[in-house]
Amino acid sequence: MDYFRPRKQLDILDPLNKDFLKRKPTAASQGPQQLPPQGDLAPSSIFDEGDSQKKPAKDSQPGQPRVSPRDPTVLAAALDPNPEARQRWQRNQIIRNVRNRGQLTKAQRLARTERESLSKSPFYTTSVKKLMPLARQIAGKPIEEAIVQMRFSKKKVARDVKKHLEFARDKAIVERGMGLAVATAEYNRAGGIDESDDVAEENAGQDEQWPGMVVEDKKGKRRFVSDTSSIYVDEAWVGRGSYSMDYDHRARGKTNLMRPPETSITVRLKEEATRIRLMDEREQKRQMKKVWLPLPDRPVTAQRQYCLW
Prior knowledge:
Blueprint: H1 7-13, H2 18-23, H3 72-79, H4 83-99, H5 106-113, E1 116-120, H6 128-138, H7 143-151, H8 158-176, H9 181-189, H10 197-202, E2 213-216, E3 222-225, E4 231-243, E5 246-249, E6 255-258, E7 261-271, H11 272-288
Antiparallel strand pairs: 1-7, 2-3, 4-7, 5-6
């Protein structure tokens, strides 16, 4: 098909021709290259010390064109890959809200008023039979008491459970803001920040001078609670994993293949305010229960006084 092209076009496309390199565009003819913008810390970052102001680049010139901002249509491929499915989901959410007349369910209301944190540990080289007693031991206890229990436990896997409890406690404090009512009240009282009306109403019932109360858990054990935001282990369960491979070297060059199991532990942390609410609900249910009455004294009828055999 090249024979049907003009002779001049064939000479230009030939790499051995002198005009081929002359007509090839160079980097200088394309103009200054636009570099991507240099990133910086966000204004709300804790690492921003005030001196991280955006300074002009050293190689930037006054006449150099500025880089255009990011195109949202290009970012939509990653941020919103399926817009039709998102629109259907939003439509279903609006329909459900209208169908319920804007009323929240009990689970939604509790999710907005109470805090909880779920944390799953990595797999440990132990069995469910060995890890399950430790899960029963820490369930229902305050987080600090559960850590002390694992610290003085004679079980080998208790050290790993202790590290996971410390990680779960720190995760609940940082991500969910659990256990910070007293510390926040002290900070605000010392003049740290000026509380707004909403924050003042939220912290109104979390005063440091709260006398405390005796709380009964679901197992019937009573504990004294001095802070409604203190963290406790609400649930703890274990999960069976896969079986790893290990070798047992024996005498005369023999080797046995061992398959040690792997098990993980999951803990759900909640605040004492949740346990107080559950105690009130159980007490209210106990009071609403009807009083048991024996059968009334009635004459026995429709029976014969003699046997029929």
